Amino acid sequence: MRILVLNGRPRPNGNTKGMVEAFREGAVSAGHQVDVVDVCHMKISGCLGCEYCHTRGSGTCAQKDDMQKIHALLKEAEMLVLASPIYYHGISGQLKCVLDRFYSVAYPGKPPKLKKAAMILSSGDPDMYDGAVFSYQGDFLDYLGLEGMGVFTAHGAENGSAKKLAELRAFGGSLK
What are 85's strand-pairing partners? Predict the structure, then answer.
């Protein structure tokens, strides 16, 4: 299976990076191809709402930035994993810009190969995930009709713990 991980972590060695790496190790060991994209190191502007993509753009965005790289990977992906630290009850702003730009490739229907989705979240507090999970559920599972493979969270001391990393490694390794 071809898996696209969109990593919205701004800090190069933060907790989210470790969680993504553990998931990737497990998935690769099970024979999957995993593309990890660190969106915070890319130049991606927010959606302009100009509707170019749904009129004369025929599904392509009017903006020419690094989002085209993600669109190309998304066309081949069978599973999407969204990974982010939690900021103000939601995903990082950098990842939010990327998700807003899905408008050109995910409307009126999802990319044809994309079937599954999962989410990996890191926080300092256990009660901070509602906004991110609401978006994941509504936008990816309900609207795009993707099969939910789980939401994996770590908060406080769980971040970076051997137990949490083993859980993510096992999840990646269990994918069929």
Answer: 122
Contacts of 74 (CB under 8 A, 6+ apart): 4, 80, 102, 105, 111, 114
Give 84's pLDDT tier (boundaries 50, 70, 90).
very high
CA distance linking residue 172 with residue 175, whole number of Å:
6
Length in residues, the chain: 176
Residue whose C-alpha is closest to residue 117's, from 90, 86, 93, 138: 138
pLDDT tens, 18-62? 999 999 999 999 999 999 999 999 999 999 999 999 998 888 899
Mean pLDDT for 77-94 is 96
Query: Six-digit token pair at 135?
Result: 């978006």
Return the number of other C-beta atoms located less than 10 Å from residue 145's C-beta.
11
Handedness of CA 31, 20, 97, 79 (dihedral sign): positive
CA atoms within 13 A on the CB side of 13: 0
Angle between helices 15-29 and 162-174 (to 10 degrees): 40
Taking the CA atoms of residue 100, residue 8, residue 20 and residue 90 in that order, the dihedral angle to the nearest 10 degrees is -80
Res 91: pLDDT: 96
Q: For 33, list phi and psi in degrees, rounded to 5.
A: -95, 125
Task: Give this prediction's pTM.
Answer: 0.96
